[in-house]
């Protein structure tokens, strides 16, 4: 009886230890030269080959000025067409709540099919986060399958780099952010589809298994995957987004301009309010193929620019002020 009691006590202590090991833990994968986590102790990411057995390699890719207001180079992992990465969830790490963030670029928007898989938790069904190709081969919008498209505009391109953040809390509420903007919200408390689960217990980035639909992915680039076993706050999300350009380009002096751009959508005139009114700011407007259409300087708190000559569509406006940058998308009616 004494030995049995000691055994039960030992199991209880082991359970407490396993829970405490993962209290508010975050693993980051820079993907510069290996698949290891920082801090150490997290599982290595696994390369998932495509149908031809190809995986990917560590590369340095040019980042266009339309992404961060300045050009540069990003170090990360290039994955082949229909290949990807996998995070094997350690026992007791992710349960109901978790958060993840990653920087990525998709190289091709080719149809058919009409989707590019970004994130899922299984190789055997379609549930996941996709780019739905609303204007292939150049543009797409976010799709939270099977719960519908998120927005009607062609937000994604094959030119720019993006940051995606997914936060799921203990109640099962999921929020997805793209480039600091909340794009989707979904109650997953009943379906439980957006958590790693048995029998595989993993998170899949980009790869889609041919048993679902072959080639429902594209070649691309990913860096700075961050996975935490708790729900990030709105302030945590903001801080991660504010570090997007510095982590992507490997520079330390990129800051966010405090500015407002309105109205959105716009017909003829776009108004720009700068908090630092005494410093001159550079304005650049890009289409979603990454081409710069307009470029000029503004100064003063209140500014108005004429966009009446632009065709109807979605555009990106970049503001540069000293070593600070910010960007907004806007719709032209």
Descriptive terms for the model:
333 residues, mainly beta, Jelly Rolls, Immunoglobulin-like, 8-stranded antiparallel β-sheet, 5 helices, globular, disordered N terminus
Please tell me about this protein's structure.
The chain is mainly β. The protein contains five helices and 24 strands. Strands 1, 3, 4, 6, 12, 13, 14 and 16 form an eight-stranded antiparallel sheet that branches. Strand 9 and strand 10 form a beta hairpin. The longest helix is centred in the first third of the chain and has 20 residues. The N terminus is likely disordered.
What is the β-strand count? 24
**CATH class category name of the largest domain:** Mainly Beta
| Main sheet overview | 8 strands, antiparallel
Order of helices and strands: HEEEHEEEEEEEEEEEEHEHHEEEEEEEE
Q: Could you tell me the radius of gyration in angstroms?
A: 22 Å
Mean pLDDT: 83
Q: Which fold name is given in CATH as the topology of the largest domain? A: Jelly Rolls
CATH architectural group of the largest domain: Sandwich
How much of the sequence lies in strands comes to: 35-45%
